[in-house]
Amino acid sequence: MPQAVPKGLSREHVLQALADLDAGVEHPFGSPTGYELVHERRRYPPKAVIGLACRGLLGRVLSPEEFSGGEAPGQANFVLRELGFTVEKKGPETDQRNGFSRTFDDGPSYIKYHLVRSVQLCRIPGVWFGLA
What is the C-alpha to C-alpha distance for residues 38 and 40, in angstroms, rounded to an integer? Predict the structure, then answer.
């Protein structure tokens, strides 16, 4: 049965875990199922963040089975909020390309953003798409 997140975890531990995730550090956690930590327009799996953050506290990464990602006191989402982070319910599908998070139900503005972004990334010489 999962235990509570160890006491003593700090905001600095969590910030280091976010930097580790940004750097592509491998971890035993899957994708977030119901919630995501949102920090500086990026989205992270809360359990992975807590598991990696515990390395700074305990000297090792917690495994997914060692703690819960829930909302109750002592669980991952609760602890992250107590440390001042934003944890939100996960929307339909989320696109995180280039750190830009939008849900797929954002309609025409979402589509326009990605059309413009695609043109910017492709930079096809001599071709003008006339997107306004």
Answer: 7
Does 107 lie in the same domain as 62? Answer: no
Residue range 92-119, pLDDT digits in tens: 654 444 444 444 444 554 454 455 555 5
The mean pLDDT of 45-60, rounded to a whole number, is 97
Domain extent, residue 45, equals 1-90
User: Encoding tokens for residue 112?
Assistant: 């326009």
Q: How far apart are CA 87 and CA 85, in angstroms?
A: 6
The residue count for the chain: 132
Number of domains comprising the chain: 2
| Phi then psi dihedrals of residue 74, to 5 deg | 90, -10
Q: Residue 94: CB partners within 8 Å, gap ≥ 6?
A: 36, 43, 101, 102, 103, 104
* pTM summary value: 0.69
Tell me the chain's radius of gyration from C-alpha atoms.
18
